[in-house]
Prior knowledge:
By secondary structure, the protein is α/β, with parallel strands linked by helices. It has one domain (about 15-164): HUPs (Rossmann fold, 3-Layer(aba) Sandwich). The protein contains 7 helices and 5 strands; from the N terminus they run αβαβααβαβαβα. A 5-stranded parallel beta sheet has the order 3-2-1-4-5. α2 (about 45-55) links the parallel β1 (about 30-35) and β2 (about 60-65). It starts with 13 loop residues before the first helix and ends with a helix.
Amino acid sequence: MNNAVLPHPKILHGQALHERLTELRAHGKRLVFTNGCYDVLHPGHADLLHRAKSLGDTLLLAVNDDASVRRLGKRPDRPINPLEVRMYMAAHLECVDLVTSFSEDTPLECIRRIRPQVLAKGGDWPLENIVGREIVEAGGGKVYSLPLLPGYSTTELIERIRRL
């Protein structure tokens, strides 16, 4: 696979992300944060991201880096797509305003740095298990566990492809 860097103006890290978030906050924008692997995009991802975006003004998607995906206990050949591809594809979704990545096992440090007003995860995460919930709620924000679109799962999609 081509490992070329795939630039996109929505993909930001470090100081560039900090400056963009500062600008958004200065304009009173409500920041929604979500995260995940987003290995092989499917309708379930698009639906979840669209609904997450509706909870605020700006949707920031934090994508697990390749090493953290492997540590999550997924199959050893995951992720299928490298981080750069996963971020590039997500950045092209209209509902996603910003994309960044994180290398830790959870997005906790990312959430601490970013301090979003809204934290959204898929419905497979009960509210009490959503990482960063306490930080967001302590800052007066809201946390949501959004129902998943039935019948769509990256793992199931990959297994279906393997059976072909």
